[in-house]
Amino acid sequence: MFSLNEIKKSILIALWFMFLTFPIMVIKVNTIYKTIEWRWERMLMVGIGAFVLSFVWRYFIKRKEAGIKQADMGEDAQQTLVQRITDNKKIYFPSLAAIAIFVVIFPFAFSMYQTNIMTTALIYVVVGLGLNIVVGLAGLLDLGYVAFYLVGAYTYALLNLHFGLGFWTVLPIGALFAGIFGVILGFPVLRLRGDYLAIVTLGFGEIIRLVMENWNAFSFGPSGIANIPRPSLFGLDLSLHQNIIYVYFLMVAMAIFTIFVVRRLQD
Question: CA dihedral in degrees (226, 229, 231, 232; nearest 10)?
């Protein structure tokens, strides 16, 4: 059972999340008609979701602490949360099915804007999983990792702008270029450790950002490169809505593939 103090903590967390997300989730400005729409029901949903997730999180923390105590008493019962869920088939398969159903129906149940937001989130999930390889598995504090994301993105943008190459053609080339930059940076940098490694990689990330923002003849400066075509589906002519859904499922597939690769590296 949860004490009154635990309930108060969850309420405070919910209120804090509601405060942080208020400008994004509640206020919607219509620049055409110059009106403001107040979406209070979304604030309520954020509050309820944060409250419930806080409760669930505290529950699993208590379970983990209880497992550690049992292990300290001589019982071999210490398991991670993921292991407990995967070992319990009655929880694992229904949870996996529920997540899969939600992922599939998401672009059809929500607007194009929300689907675009989820696609962007999945892109950063992939970037975060890659960062986990460097920082989490290899133990290297790399603060300039996002620079390789920039290299791959600008590779596609520039090759498409100057040579008209498509997404699928440039995808392996962008990965190759990002890998080459990683090797070039890795030779001198990986001789460093700790804070020195973090400082040098942070400097590398900032240098690349400043170069791209100020080298107008090459990268078009802070305005960026516009009118980059979206990934195609076997040459089919897709509408904007269809293409947004296609890119969403493409990022879901890439996220799953990245998770698989990371797990194989870890094991």
Answer: 170
How far is Cα 8 from Cα 11, in angstroms, rounded to an integer? 5
Element (H, E) at 28: strand 27-30
> pLDDT of 13-31, one tens digit each?
889 988 888 888 888 888 7
Give φ, ψ of 145 to 5 degrees.
Answer: -60, -35
Distance CA 88, CA 115 (A): 32
Whole-angstrom distance, CA of residue 63 vs CA of residue 85: 12
Q: Is 155 in a helix, a strand, or coil?
A: helix
Higher pLDDT, 190 or 135: 135
| Boundaries of every domain in the chain | 1-78, 79-109
Q: What is the CA radius of gyration of the chain?
A: 23
Say which residues have a Cβ less than 8 Å from residue 157's Cβ, sequence separation at least 6: 224, 225, 228
Kindly report the pTM of this predicted structure: 0.69
What does the block give as tokens for 253? 């597939």
